[in-house]
């Protein structure tokens, strides 16, 4: 199995997706890939790398697709604040010995936009809160022109302008975090983040996840960051 390596964390992220159409609970259990790591790989070289090219190639061959990550979102205690941000609990590696929770605020639905200057290294820092796929800031979908200007201002490729979706409340139900690649649908983008996956979903033919890398397998590292 081919994989990409994030040297700082030692994480190995498979390049392939498996399990299209299987129930979300199965897809969620089989993967060890967190959303932030997937974005780190996708965005390397300002979105010009093997990982990103394979994402596009999958779309060119199979049509739109989505993947689920090893993250869960839960309801916080404080609801929505005056800025429209929802208090949430972001869970890493749920139901494992490495489970970890952080309390953060999720902005309203919209295009996620940069909040600082891109230094040519880590795009994720200026788009997402640390180690998560929850944006720092969003722009309403009806204001796409404003979002485009903010991306252009820091020289990010407009074709990767993507959206963020979350419900107004999780009502004490946890949700699975996922990513959708569907650039030709309503400017949906190449890394649209959905904090909306219902764990009990029976599955959809375009949704899969990346299997865990097992050391006993014949694996090949094709990308390092």
Output the keywords.
225 residues, alpha+beta, 9-stranded mixed sheet, 3-stranded mixed sheet
Structure description:
The chain is α+β, with helices and mostly antiparallel strands and 225 residues long. It has one domain (2-224). The protein has 5 helices and 12 strands. Strands 3, 4, 5, 6, 7, 8, 9, 10 and 11 form a 9-stranded mixed beta sheet that branches. A 3-stranded mixed beta sheet has the order 2-1-12, with helices on one face. Helix 2 crosses helix 3 (50-62). The protein is globular, with a radius of gyration of 17 Å. The model has no long low-confidence stretch (mean pLDDT 94).
Classification by helices and strands: alpha+beta
Low-pLDDT regions: none
Shape: globular
Helix content: 10-25%
Largest sheet: 9 strands, mixed
Q: What number of structural domains do the residues give? A: 1
In short:
By secondary structure, this protein is an alpha+beta fold. Helix content is 21%, strand content 30%.
Task: Draw up the topology in text.
Elements: E1 2-6, E2 11-14, H1 24-30, H2 35-47, H3 50-62, E3 65-80, E4 86-92, E5 100-106, E6 110-112, H4 124-127, E7 138-139, H5 144-153, E8 163-165, E9 175-181, E10 192-197, E11 207-208, E12 220-224
Parallel strand pairs: 1-12, 3-11, 8-10
Antiparallel strand pairs: 1-2, 3-4, 3-9, 4-5, 6-7, 6-8, 9-10
Helix pairs in contact: 2-3
